[in-house]
Amino acid sequence: MSDTPGIVVMGASGRMGQMLVREVQAHPAMRLVGAVERSGHDWVGKDIGIAMNGPAAGVYVTDDPLEAMAGAQGVIDFTTPQATIELSVIAAQARAVHVIGTTGMTDEDLAKLDAAARHAVIVRAGNMSLGVNLLTQLTKQVAAALDEEFDIEIVESHHRHKVDAPSGTALMLGEAAAEGRGLDFREAYVAARDGITGARAPGSIGFSAIRGGDIIGEHDVIFAGAGERIVLRHVASDRALFARGALKAVLWGQSQTPGHYSMLDVLGL
Ligand SMILES: NC(=O)c1ccc[n+]([C@@H]2O[C@H](COP(=O)([O-])OP(=O)(O)OC[C@H]3O[C@@H](n4cnc5c(N)ncnc54)[C@H](O)[C@@H]3O)[C@@H](O)[C@H]2O)c1
Ligand SMILES: O=C(O)C1=N[C@H](C(=O)O)CCC1
């Protein structure tokens, strides 16, 4: 048996799934051992390489995550909240590192992940890129340095297929801003203004979402004061960015004790 960890890609036909399959296959320190899709998907039963219009990979897409996880040391999962919660139980039973990029999780979902993380390593982040994780730290610092005269607004833009809003990244940035300013994030959160909203509530953090075309992911954190404005911006121009962060996380997780970690832990930020 090889020393390199065997990795399963969940949601293998998706925008992120295909990117992850390519990156895992190209990585010298891991092996692709499984590819999972939802039941009824027409890739189930096919060789993942052929399904992606490339050479055969010798890995057949399955709709059974339990079968795919046999002999795997890690699973990378960018799918849906429901699929991620179901997989977390299986990954914990297999003691495999579960790297989660899925966004749109509820508090109830997160509590279930906490339960799974008592038995296995989970690394979860709404954005796996180095740039965004660094931006969360900068956002916290700027929010702490400026007083309430500077209103905080977060504007995010994504492709037309995205199903959740605000984005996971926007929420990470908002939480960092709230922490920096000593605010309760839930109380500060304001989304989707429409109609006669009244004047802006002091101490609030506003979120706006744009959806269109093939935008991969853009985020502005705006600190708007009187006569001046600071804008912290991240622009993603390649999804490989997120996949590479996930690969880093699954390797990092191999040497950790069970727990629910973030990319800040992986990157040491
Ligand atoms: N954290 C990050 O850095 C980051 C980056 C990009 C996307 N995302 C998130 O990743 C998720 C997926 O994004 P996407 O653009 O790849 O979406 P997508 O719709 O292209 O892919 C999701 C895939 O999951 C599959 N799937 C659904 N249920 C499944 C199940 N039960 N078992 C196996 N597969 C299942 C779907 O069939 C689909 O192929 C979203 O939540 C998105 O916000 C996170
Ligand atoms: O394409 C998506 O969907 C993305 N989702 C993440 C988010 O919700 O922030 C990261 C950026 C791309």
Structural overview:
NADP(+) binds at residue 38. Belongs to the DapB family. With 269 residues, the chain is α/β, with parallel strands linked by helices. It folds into two domains: 6-124 and 239-267, NAD(P)-binding Rossmann-like Domain (Rossmann fold); 130-236, 2-Layer Sandwich (Dihydrodipicolinate Reductase, domain 2), CATH 3.30.360. 36% of the residues lie in helices and 23% in strands. The chain has ten helices and twelve strands. It has helices at 15-26, 48-51, 65-69, 81-93, 107-116, 130-145, 168-181, 185-188, 240-253, 263-267; strands at residues 6-10, 31-36, 61-62, 74-77, 97-100, 121-124, 151-158, 189-191, 205-211, 217-224, 229-236, 259-261. The chain has a seven-stranded parallel sheet with strand order 3-2-1-4-5-6-12, sandwiched between helices. Strands 8-9-7-10-11 form a five-stranded mixed sheet. It is elongated. The mean pLDDT is 97. The site of nicotinamide-adenine-dinucleotide (NAD) has 25 residues, from helix 1.
How much of the sequence lies in strands comes to 15-25%
Please provide the count of β strands: 12
- CATH architectural grouping of the largest domain: 3-Layer(aba) Sandwich
Instruction: Walk across the major sheet and give the strand order.
Output: 3-2-1-4-5-6-12
CATH topology of the largest domain: Rossmann fold
Unreliably modeled segments: none
Please, what is the average pLDDT?
A: 97
- How many helices? The count is 10
- Portion of residues within helices: 25-40%
Q: What is the distance, rounded to the nearest whole angstrom, between the alpha carbons of the first and last residues?
A: 35 Å
The CATH class of the largest domain, by name, is Alpha Beta
Order of helices and strands: EHEHEHEHEHEHEHHEEEEHEH
